[in-house]
């Protein structure tokens, strides 16, 4: 009896020890339980310890690499480091810093330095364009144009480059008009229109020039009035206010012409009348002395 009991307990103990090695498969079939090894399952595509160590080292390098820890010139890791820092600035949309780093790469390595990273040219083109827009907002148009050319060098020309240049031309002639520099404004306006005619801006420019003409008219500034009318007429000859001013000047010119004509006639009549009265007076005097020294008769009016 004791032997049977011991056998029973031994069998149960062996059964319990063997259970962890088995598991229920989907569908109810028994199978070997998956065994965890690190973060990967046995039989899966998990990384080897060497690969995990390499990835960890790369992540650490990415986190540690900064402007201060960048290797010096001549170090083979410097160029990859510059590219990493530049791309980090692009991801963070820190455009000024990104432009500075790409300029540094070009200065140190030349154009070939941009080939060291697969996304460098695309990132540089975008960064330089963003920096160009910033310079345009600050009215630094020469710097803007240099940055646009750099952007086009590494990414080609697209609608954003053309749109920025066109916006600058439009802002330029409007600013010059606000300053009263009409001649400069007209030069910039005509350059803007030469790229692509803009009817709205043409109407606006014509209205501004007409305002200047009216101001000169009210100030009785004939010299600036003629110039302003000519400028407005070259931009928007059908402007209603401009046509009204020209008609007013024509009416005033007709009145002045009539006044001038009447004045000339009056002067002529006055001259003729004066001559007539002078002749009559002279004839009267000659009649009074008739019979004097000319006739040999004594004039009683002159006799003492």
Structural overview:
With 304 residues, the chain is mostly helical. Among the domains are: 62-157; 159-247, no CATH class. The chain has 11 helices and 4 strands, in the order αββββαααααααααα. Mean pLDDT is 79; it is low at 19-44.
Largest sheet: 2 strands, antiparallel
* Class of secondary structure makeup: mainly alpha
Main β-sheet, spatial strand arrangement: 1-2
Average pLDDT: 79
- Portion in beta strands: under 5%
E-strand count: 4
Could you spell the SSE succession in H and E letters? HEEEEHHHHHHHHHH
List keywords for this structure.
two-stranded antiparallel ribbon; 4 strands; 304 residues; mainly alpha
Topology:
Blueprint: H1 2-18, E1 22-24, E2 30-32, E3 36-37, E4 40-41, H2 49-64, H3 78-91, H4 95-109, H5 120-137, H6 141-155, H7 159-179, H8 182-195, H9 199-218, H10 222-235, H11 240-288
Antiparallel strand pairs: 1-2, 3-4
Helix pairs in contact: 3-4, 4-5, 5-6, 7-8, 9-10
The gist of it:
The chain has 304 residues and is mostly helical. Helix content is 70%, strand content 3%. The chain is built from 11 helices and 4 strands.
């Amino acid at each position: 009896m004791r032997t049977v009991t011991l056998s029973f307990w031994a069998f149960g103990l062996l059964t319990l020890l063997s259970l962890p090695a088995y598991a229920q498969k989907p569908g109810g079939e028994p199978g070997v339980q998956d065994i965890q090894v690190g973060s990967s399952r046995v039989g899966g595509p998990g990384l080897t310890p060497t690969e995990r160590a390499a990835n960890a080292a790369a992540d650490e390098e990415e986190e540690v690499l900064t402007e201060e820890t960048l290797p010096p010139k001549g170090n083979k890791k410097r160029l990859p480091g510059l590219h990493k820092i530049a791309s980090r600035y692009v991801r963070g949309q820190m455009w000024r810093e990104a432009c500075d780093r790409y300029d540094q790469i070009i200065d140190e390595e030349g154009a070939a330095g941009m080939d060291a990273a697969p996304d460098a040219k695309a990132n540089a083109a975008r960064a330089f364009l963003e920096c160009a827009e910033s310079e345009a907002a600050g009215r630094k148009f020469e710097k803007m144009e240099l940055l646009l050319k750099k952007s086009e060098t590494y990414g080609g020309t697209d609608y954003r480059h053309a749109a920025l240049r066109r916006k600058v031309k439009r802002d330029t002639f409007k600013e010059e008009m606000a300053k009263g520099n009409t001649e400069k404004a007209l030069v910039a306006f005509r350059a803007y229109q030469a790229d692509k005619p803009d009817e709205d801006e043409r109407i606006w420019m014509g209205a501004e020039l007409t305002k200047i003409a009216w101001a000169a008219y009210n100030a009785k500034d004939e010299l600036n009035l003629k110039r302003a009318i000519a400028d407005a007429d070259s931009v928007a000859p059908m402007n209603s206010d401009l046509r009204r001013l020209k008609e007013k000047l024509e009416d005033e010119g007709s009145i002045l012409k009539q006044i001038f004509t009447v004045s000339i006639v009056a002067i002529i009549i006055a001259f003729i009348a004066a001559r007539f009265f002078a002749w009559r007076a002279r004839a009267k005097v000659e009649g009074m002395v008739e019979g004097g020294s000319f006739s040999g008769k004594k004039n009683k009016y002159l006799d003492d």
